[in-house]
Amino acid sequence: MITIYRSREGVLETVPEIVSGCWINVVDPTSDEIERLVCEGIPQDFLTYPLDLDERSRTEREDDGKMLILLRIPYFQSQMVDVPYITIPLGIILTDQFIVTVCRYPNEIINEFTLGRVRHLSTAKRIRFVLRILLSTANLYLAYLREINRTVESVEDQLQLSMQNREVMELLKYQKSLVYFTTALKSNELLLERLQRAQLFRMYPDDEDLLEDVITENQQAIEMANISSSILTSMMDAFASIISNNLNVVMKFLTSVTILLNVPVIITGFYGMNVDLPLQEFSFAWQIILAICVGLVAITAIYFTRRRWF
């Protein structure tokens, strides 16, 4: 799908045709749509690279000045899948006349721009537009990392009383997401360093300052992802031991109860034999035997309690 936007007095408008200073948003394009854009002078490789979900962050430049910036952005799938948060490639193509964004899926970063959530947006200022996308990407990483931390804390409360593996498997899903995030953020960091060394963002001091902000936010996201991943790994190891310990406590309790129940069984088993036994001539023998059983059970229970076996 191809949608063409142009800003006018800070308001983003949809236009029917490609014009100078516009923004072309491409989402999961068909072969015909790719051919249309190729006819506008955009290299076909620049359009197909972002559609490969395994592409890494990098930049490419053609001899005629057209440039591709490929970065990894966070993407939320669903809480019901094995990996709720993943990363996908987003391609940003710069030409002399317009800017193009290419992605396989609709994503929250592009939605922020198309829905008018980004203030003072100008599609004609192509360099500033790229920086705003980079900054939104870093901020979205931070937002998703905070959501992951809140979810992990909720699962942690459930784990403290759990004896099953369900909560541990839930944590494993988010640990996978953190691995994806950490890898993508480090790849984006290398991309930003290359952009900082280039002359692309040195035309205007404000753009260079904004790039510094993007790098700072990206580094903060990297540190946050590393900390969250380390904490989650330690937590999973600790709670795996807790689950095993909880199971041992239950088994110890059940074993103690079984021993207590076997005490009267042993005594009454003897009196079930067809031989001469003590107290058999008394009519109230069963009461004496019952009292002995209760006393032995009480003594055993007290002994277990003092040894903390109960």
TrEMBL record:
Pfam families: CorA (PF01544). The chain crosses the membrane at residues 253-272, 284-304. Gene3D superfamilies: CorA soluble domain-like (3.30.460.20), Magnesium transport protein CorA, transmembrane region (1.20.58.340). InterPro entries: CorA-like, CorA_cytoplasmic_dom, CorA_TM1_TM2, MgTranspt_CorA/ZnTranspt_ZntB. Its main location: membrane. Keywords: Membrane, Transmembrane, Transmembrane helix. GO terms for cellular component: membrane. GO terms for molecular function: metal ion transmembrane transporter activity. It is found in: Membrane. SUPFAM superfamilies: CorA soluble domain-like, Magnesium transport protein CorA, transmembrane region. Belongs to the CorA metal ion transporter (MIT) (TC 1.A.35) family. This is Magnesium transporter. The lineage of its organism: Bacteria, Bacillati, Chloroflexota, Anaerolineae, Anaerolineales.
